[in-house]
Amino acid sequence: MPTSPLGAKKLREATFFLACLRKAEGTSRLDDESFDFYLSAFLSASRSFTFTLQYEQKEAYDQTFPGWLASLTPEEQDVLSLLKDQRNDMLKRGTTDREKDVVFVPMWTLPSTQSPNRPLLLPWAGDRDATIGVARHRIEVAGVQRPVLEVCSQGLALLERFMAHFAST
Questions:
Q1: Where do the structural domains in the chain lie, given as residue ranges?
Q2: Alpha-carbon span 130 to 124, nearest angstrom
Q3: Residues 6 or more apart from 17 whose CB is under 8 A from it?
Q4: Half-sphere exposure of residue 99, counting CA atoms within 13 Å on the CB side?
């Protein structure tokens, strides 16, 4: 039963940055770069997970990972491949292929933390139809546009699944 304290730490790190991504998604501050910073950190931590397993348990990793990867569905393989490629793009180009859309949502649906400078008396407080633009991020996986948060969540779940499989071998 191989164990990997460093691998487990990298998964916790990726989980931390995924939580940060969730908080940054949907901001009404359209010039805010937080999402990009957290995405970069998430991609780096999730990619580093396999590197740490190789470092700590190279022989066991080399015997386990290829077969496990081949057992995944094509869609799951596409997600892991995309995350790896996006991490490489972030390091080499300084960006990813993610797209940012502006979606208009009712003002009253925003958490108060989205606009810390709101006056106490909001001019739109009585207008249930008032809207504001918020950022939503998407990325293409195997020709299909998907929310970045959904793809990152799926990728992290797959890595956690591999960690459990790795520990059980």
A1: 5-96+147-168
A2: 6
A3: 38, 41, 42, 45
A4: 11
Residue 19: is its pLDDT beyond 60?
yes
Torsion angle (degrees, nearest 10) of CA 62, 65, 68, 69:
-120
**Alpha carbons 3 and 143: distance in angstroms, whole number:** 36
Q: Other C-beta atoms within 10 Å of 169: how many?
A: 11
Only one residue has tokens 């590197």, namely 51
List, as one string, the DSSP characters of 129-168: T-EEEEEEEEEEETTEEEEHHHHHHHHHHHHHHHHHHHHH
Nearest to 15 by CA among 163, 152, 109: 152
Tokens of 32: 């805010």
36-60 pLDDT, tens digit each: 999 999 999 999 999 999 999 999 9
